[in-house]
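I'd like us to work through together how a protein chain folds, taking it slowly. To get us started, please write out a protein record for me. Label the sequence line and the structure token line clearly, so we can match residues to local backbone shapes. Once you have written the record down, we can walk along the chain together.
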Amino acid sequence: MEIKPPGSGKPNLNPVDENLKVTKKSEKSFSVNRPDSLEKASLTEKAQGSRFAGVSAQFSNADLKDTNKVEVVLRSSIQELLQTEFPNAAFPSERDRENFIELMAKDPLFRGKLLGHLEKILK
């Protein structure tokens, strides 16, 4: 036994009900809200826009080649980024703040982007 849908099986393209009609079409089908400024940007976006004045004064590009110093440079950069770009970032304890810095320093994606940015700005 074959069950057929009511009507002709074709959608009704001319709805009678006024609530079903589209009154205004949007100007854009899809829109992506990207922050115009860095005020709502992520940690990675802010890191790529930061000049790292304290880190630039303290370290050089040669320090990025030294495997021991690069870890210090990374952690200092993340700490400066938190202080300058996210001054209202609240951590329950200083240990939690240190754990966050450690986590970000070990994150391969963030680490790569931060090191690439530091290579550009350090002399």
Remarks:
- The two ends are 81 Å apart (CA to CA).
- The first helix runs from residue 43 to 49.
